[in-house]
Amino acid sequence: MSRAAVAIALAFGFASSACSLGQGEGRVYSEKLYAEDCWFDEYDLGPDFFAAVPFRDTQQIRIQRGSDLEEVSDGLIVLVDDTAKVRSMLGEPLCVSLPPDVRPPGSPIGVDPGQGCADGPLVHMALYLQRSCHNQNIVLYSVGGHITFQHLFDGDPNEPSAEEKYTDATFDDVMVGDPRDVKLGAKAYEIPADKQSRLSGNFRFYFQRGRPGQAFP
Q1: Cα dist. 214→76, 78, 134, 170 in Å?
Q2: CA distance from start to end of the chain
């Protein structure tokens, strides 16, 4: 299977049917980002587009440079598995891991405790470089690290309170990599250390209801 085909399969777990748009501020950067055949240098996303997509008890946060389609843009997706639980842990560092549905061919299914999430992961990330590395179809997924939410949108698209629609988060040690670099038969998060990159950043914005968006990525 080609790297491009696998990338499409890996991204499927993050697909969504709607997107609510809002202005905000933040930064996503790496002192040395590795993306095979595309990037091995300092990277700064420079986001100016922020959105939240609530679905039942989960939500997807999209931080992107520009408001174009994701398939031709660079951006970061943050997937929150349990909005209520994360809101009960505001101010605490939360483990960030690889999503259970993301795995290269031949890897075991499911999240493994070896990822360092004692109570199970609640947050996942994916950095897509569809503008910077469009020909390579690069998506880098989180395999470790932490994020701290000071505020998190409550997930109600009809929420009238501005305070409950606010999201504010910071991360400094999130490691990302391409699961297609995992050796055959290894666990999906066992990406070679020399092909992982440390990602740092922050974002803050108010949820604002908007028109339907595009699927990720």
Answers
A1: 14, 16, 17, 26
A2: 19
- pTM of the prediction? 0.83
Q: How many residues does the chain have?
A: 217
DSSP 214: P
In this structure, the number of other CB atoms found within 10 A of the CB of residue 73 comes to 21
Residue 153: what residue type?
Answer: F
**Integer CA distances (angstroms), 20 to 82, 97, 152, 212, in order:** 19, 25, 15, 7
Q: Which residues contact 176 (CB under 8 A, 6 or more apart)?
A: 125, 126, 127, 140, 141, 142, 143, 196, 197, 199
**C-alpha Rg value of the chain to the nearest Å:** 16
Domain layout of the chain by residue ranges: 3-206
Reading the chain (217 residues) residue by residue, the pLDDT tens digits are 344 333 333 333 444 434 445 689 999 999 999 999 999 999 999 999 999 999 999 999 999 999 888 889 999 999 999 999 999 999 999 999 887 777 666 665 554 544 667 667 899 999 999 999 988 889 999 999 999 999 999 999 999 999 999 999 999 999 999 988 888 777 777 889 999 999 999 999 999 876 544 444 4
Token duo for residue 49: 């587009």
Q: Residue 147 has which token pair?
A: 């994020």
